[in-house]
Sequence to fold (150 residues):
Amino acid sequence: MFNDLQSKVTDILELTSNDTDTKLQQICNLLQETIPYYDWVGFYFKNGSKNELKLGPYAGAPTDHTIIPFGKGICGQVALSNQNFVVPDVQAQDNYIACSINVKAEIVIPLFVNGENIGQIDIDSNTADPFNEEDERFLEFVNQGVAKIL
Ligand code: SME
Fold:
């Protein structure tokens, strides 16, 4: 599944007639529609010079959390740690921001441009403990591709 998705992501990124937000939206839609346990897929980016994340394109239910301060929630922690964060069970996390009562697991992968952590891709799953290293490698591939068009 991920091999096929990698080539589709590359196709989206290389289509020069679309602007960046359109490409990011298409990637969110593709992942959310194709991967059964990806229920919400979105990009957050550093909000200018502020130490906070701002929601970018996403697919899935609307969220109230359009701004997340650095350090808050899984996303805010990744903004500071620069590390992938795989959460098999969100209820076991103290520093977690719930977007929906249906969410059971989350994965957040930082996005680097010239070595700087400028955002992230965030996936929520309504399935318990669904993510493995293949998800991490795939989402790193997505972010590396996105980094080239930002
Ligand atoms: N759960 C995230 C907040 C963002 S929503 O998942 C869309 C967090 O704890 O940072």
